[in-house]
Amino acid sequence: MAEELVRLKPQARIVFACSSRDIDRRILEPLPYALVPQPVRPLPGRLPGVPGFLRAWRRSRKLARNLLGDLKPAGVLGLGGFAAAPVVARAAKAGMRTAMLNPDAIPGRANRYLARFAEVIFTQFDSTREHFPGRVRGKVRCVGCPVRKVLAGADRAEALRHFALRDDRRTLLVLGGSLGAESINRAFAALRGELGEFSDAWQALHVTGPQKAASDASGGGFLVRPVEYCDRMDLAYAAADLALCRAGAVTVAELSATGTPAVLMPYPHHADRHQQLNASPLAEAGAGRICQDAGAVESNTRSLRESLIPIMRQASLLQAMERAAVELGRPRAAETVAAWLAAGG
User: Fold this and answer.
1) Domain 2-145+331-342, what fold?
2) 6 exposed, middle or buried (CB, 10 Å; 0-12, 13-18, 19+)?
């Protein structure tokens, strides 16, 4: 959305108010935008964490007041999550234009709190409207989830060279988000021996996540290129013919935008199981298959075998899933949200 806003208004100044987590800095620092880390913390699940949360909240509210007073922004957009809360709430109370992006099928605690302050709530899924209180449902606009245009425009040959992959094989992209997914990594590693039958036709690019278990690149004759962190997801998707991944909101949007079929293993420990709902539209459209994460390596490996191997064996099935993924894409989501922001100044 930042890229699209700059395209619409080249003079626009963009500031990200993020959390103080290392992953936020790793993602945002390389970008040409100002970055303001906040001390805000997520709402704790236990009472001993409440005093620290409240102290961080008060400091973040003060920071938000000073930040907004200095910048006097034309618009404030909450991207979901606890880091959006202090700035969006303060901006609304100061009479500034505020909007909120809710890319997951079910809004989290921060977005349920912020819904009362936002003028507009942009969502990826039509079904999300029903998960907000009735008094704010009129604010909801289903536009899809913004993704970078570069994701759909990368060159496959360049991508294969970048990751040292072969150009005579299809590529399986294995990832679990920016921090990785241990259960996906372990199930994939356990299945490696059986993937040897595809050693002449397939290879894998495995984004393991920082300090997560990775599979040996030479095991079983099946070529795997492991990388701890990938800052060129445009090239990763360009190389991919099939993905094995979680079902986070942005991942689901990227799969549709790039026309990448997927075996989706939703994160199982969210109370509302929103990743399961995120994955459902892809599965219902024939663009993905859902493989439940049961926690145990043995059961996950069995489920992964049943979901993944038939797709790798049948080119016609893979092609049908790819066509379905392309049809789900909402390529103008970023443009729609950026146009709303640009209209304010």
Assistant:
1) Rossmann fold (3.40.50)
2) middle
